[in-house]
Amino acid sequence: MKSIATSLLIILCFGSLIIINSCQKNPFTTDPADKLVFSTDTVHFDTVFTTVGSATEYFTIKNPNKSKSLKLDKIYLAKKNNSVYRLNINGFPVNEIEDFELAPGDSIYIFVEVTIDPNRDEMIEKDSIIFISNGNVQNVKLIAYGQDITLINGRYISNDTTWTSAKPVVIYNSALVEENITLTVMPGTKVYMHRGSSLFIGGTLKVLGETNNRVVFTGDRLEDYYSEIAGQWGAFLEDGYGNTTRIFGGIHLMSGSHDNQIYYADIKNAIIGLQVDSCVTPGVPTVRLKNTNIENSKIAGLYALGAYIEAENCVFANSGQYNVACIIGGQYSFIHCTMANYWIGNRQTPQLILNNYYQYRDGNGNVQTSFRDLVDAYFGNCIIYGSRDNELDLDLSVDAIANFRFDNCLIKYKDYQDLESSDFFIDNIWNESPKFMETVNPFEYQLDTLSPAKDAGKLSIGNIVPLDQNGNNRLIDGHPDLGAFERQE
User: Fold this and answer.
1) CATH number of the domain at 149-462, out of 1.10.10, 2.40.50, 2.40.128, 2.160.20?
2) pLDDT band (50, 70, 90) for residue 145
C-alpha cells in the first residue's frame, strides 16, 4: 500500500510540474533588435468619397522572434481623437491598445477605415499608426485622397432634378425617380453606385453626354483592382433565407417610364447594366441609346422585356450571359452597333437572344406560356462576335409575331447555312473574326487594318448614322465600316 501511495504521489507531482510548466508564458524578448515586421509601410486609400467612408484596408504585423514573445507597449493613432481613421486590432474595434503580447513568430491583422470631412479645404488625409515595443518606435503611414460628392441615400426623387459634373454622385441604397419626374444627367457627370444599389426610373431619364465629355455609371470601388470587376452594383431581392429571388438592372427603366435617352454614356461593372421593362407610348421608343457603351455586366448588359429601343453607335460587351437580351417581344433597332463577348469564365449562353414569349406557374403550380409579339428587331451594319461558336439565339415561338432582320452584319454562328437561306438574313458575313484591336483588358473594339468588317458596311445604312461613336465621318470613302467605330488610318 505504501508503495502504491508513493507512486501516486510521484505521478501527481510530475503531473503538477507539467501543468505548472504548461501554464508558464513564453519569455519576452527585450532585445531592441527584435522589431516588428510589417507587410507594408503605407496604407493607401485611392479616392474616398466624403461623408460615406472607405472600403476596409488591412496590413499585418509580425513578431520575427521564433522563441520569445514580443510585448507591444502601445499601438495607437498618431492623431488620436482627432484622427479620421478607425482601427480594428486583431478583432478588437479600438484605436488604441496597450500591453499587447505577440507570440513567437506570430502575426496579427490590423484593419483600417477612414471618413473624410467634406468641409475641409485639403482633400488629402494623412495619419500614422504608432507601435512602441522594446524601446523602438515604429509606424505605418495612412494616406487617403478624398472627394466631395452629392450623396443619394435611399432617396425618392420627387422633383425634376439635374446632376452635373461639379460633384460626383454616389448612390447608396438605391434611388427612385418617380412618375412624371425627369432626371437629367449633364455631360461629364460621374455616377458611382454602391453595392446592391440601382437607379430606378419611373419617369424619364435623360443622359446628355458628349463625344469628349462622357457620362459614367460604375461601382463606387475606385481601386485599380475593381476597374473591371463585374457585378458591383444592381439591386436584388432575397427570400429571407439568403437566396436571391429577383435581380434588377443597375439602371432600371420601370414599366411606365417613357421618353428616355442615354447619349455618350459608359455603364460598367453592374449585375445587369440597363433593364428596360416595357413600351408605354406606341410608336415612341422607351429609350434611345446613342454612342453608349454597356460593358462587363455579370448577367446581362441590355435586358429588355417587351420594350421599344433604338440604338446607334453603341457597344455591348463582355457579359456573363447576354450582352443583349430582347425578350417577351417588343420592337428594336440596332444600327452600327458592336456586340462583342470575350467573357473570362464559363459563359453558357450566346450573347444575343430574341424571344417572343414567357413562362410562369399558375396558382396550381402548372407551367403556363404567354406570348408577346416581336413586332420588329432590325440589325444593320452591326458586329455580333465573341468566344462561343454561336453568338445568336432565336428563341421564337410560331404562336406570336416574330419579325426580325439582320442586314449586312458580321455574325458568329457555326451552322449559319440554316439561317442564310431565310429572308431574315441579308448580305451578312459569317464566322470571320472582326479583328478588334484588343480583346483582353484593356478592351479596344476599334478595327484592325485587316478586319473583314472594314469598308464592309452598306452605304444606305451608314447614311442613317453618318458619324461613328468618336465623331469620325464614316461616309468619306463611301464604304462605312461595320460596328460602332470607323477605322482611322
Assistant:
1) 2.160.20
2) confident
